[in-house]
Amino acid sequence: MALAASNTTRLWTLVAKEFWRKTRRRLRASPVYRWRYSGRTPERVLIAPPDLRLADPQIALEIYYGRYPLSGHLVETGGKSPFQINVPNHGWQKTLHGFRWLRHMRAAGTELAAANARALVSDWIAMHGNHISGIAWEPGTTAKRIIAWLQHSSVVLQGAEFPFYRAFLKSLAMQIRYLRSMAREMPDGKDRLRARIALAFAALSLPAPASALRGATRNLAGELNRQILADGGHISRNPMAVLEILADLLPLRQTYANQAEAPPQALIGAIDRMLPALRFFRHQDGSLARFNGMGATIHDRIATILRLDDTAGSPLLHAPHSGYERLAIGGTTVIADTGLPPPVDVSNAAHAGCLAFELSSGRQHYIVNAGIDTYGAAEFRPLARATAAHSTATINDTSSARFTHALRVNDQLGSPLIGGPQQVQCKRIDQKGVHGFIARHDGYLQRFGFLHERELKLSSDGNVLAGRDRFQRPGNAAIRNSGRDFITVRFHVHPDINLLQDEQERLVLTADLADTWVFTSDEVVPEVEESIYFAGLGGPRRSRQIVLAFKASEIAEVHWQLTRTKIAGYPENN
Fold first, then answer.
1. Separation CA 530–CA 78 (nearest Å)
2. Which pLDDT tens digit goes with each residue over 336-356?
3. Measured between alpha carbons, how far is 156 from 460 in angstroms, rounded to an integer?
4. Measured between alpha carbons, how far is 81 from 66 in angstroms, rounded to an integer?
5. Where does residue 150 fall: left (phi above 0), alpha (psi -120 to 50 degrees), or beta otherwise?
6. For residues 342-355, b (16+ Cβ closer than 10 Å) or e, as one string?
7. How far apart are CA 395 and CA 548, in angstroms?
8. DSSP element (H, E) containing 472
9. Which pLDDT band, with edges at 50, 70 and 90, does 24 fall under?
């Protein structure tokens, strides 16, 4: 009860802080306060930082014809400026006002693309540049826009006349001053870190006193030291956050070098830790494991970033600060969540997936988590975040962590994760070429009185993944048939996998030109049920899941095994 009260107190403290933060933001956007964002207009852009994000000239052409494929949604403007129309999709609006799509104009490399980029920037300045409100001026969106305008200033300013040139720099300077005033009070997480990155880019790319660069560098270093964990993960525990932050940090490091400025040690250290962390979460096909907010992977984006990885070698197997384990032998990769939930402040995308795992063999995924539909309807997110959407165990069809559904909380904070495991113990049991671990969490202890312990062992040739799931009461007390001891252990099967039954009535997982895996269980007859895979590139897909269902009062420990029939030609894991 004390723990629940502590969580409740923490949650409402955050609600109060966010309410006060939004109130201050409205005050700072008022005409009375806005004079503080005026000041000297920079004379020019000294340097255009590089951009590692993928660009497609065809999208520049689509935009020219009034078709905007942003954030997974296509909007046709019918000849109007996109800033004139009301599109109800929040993600599309944020992407529009973030201006990262300018990279497609730069990739097109034509005068027409440059003129269109300039016209769209001019539209934004005219319609939103002096009206600080709404999505356009959310601090996180403003940070993205500042970075994009600097990175693609060469295409925006190509052939520009002097009045536009001055208007562009004046607006950019105003946005930078606004973001500087808001950064300290932004909610915790990657948006606040990106704001510090944007301000460092600005101090390097525009004429500024040395003190401005020192201040931006110092603030960036402090945020990196706080948000990037010792093993390279992010405090949100979201693999996508590692990818997104690296896509900004690597160009920033290059910009420091191009300006003959020494980057802070915190920046260098963060990159050196995060590149191996990105490889830690990566399956052999290049996709990232679907944990805590990760959806579909854009493979080329990861490949572009990892080309700058000077630490090439075998990925780490143990990420204790991020709370993940990796088993990798003989072309088989297993990645598992063995960590505590992230802090409530940064848990809007966190999942109740403790002790869940994914298994891939070669370039094919077999056992997965459902992941999220990155651009899909928000009402499906709670389903993707629930424990039942992960390859782990549930008790009484309940998640191991809860998500607040209070309207006052959600209006201020989104849907943070609360009441999850308070202790997760994990121990590696690697020996003689065998990779393995034993982990246990108490996410069900308070409500049902159970601890869940999972052991995974991958054989020395990578052909056998042996698992054990154990359910016990503290002190190994006897488990009684209370009607609250129903266990379901789920193994979500990737939708590309065929799930069959052989002549011995074993479940066989197979795919064309890929390995075949056989699932067996000693104590419980496995069943097959329908499932859904949210993280498909084209959106959610129907899939299936293997289910072990039993009562802990009758069976307190189950053993199961996935055995591979290897097909020659698969490379060793690296």
1. 42
2. 999 999 998 899 889 999 999
3. 56
4. 8
5. alpha
6. bbbbbbbbbbbbbb
7. 12
8. strand 464-472
9. low
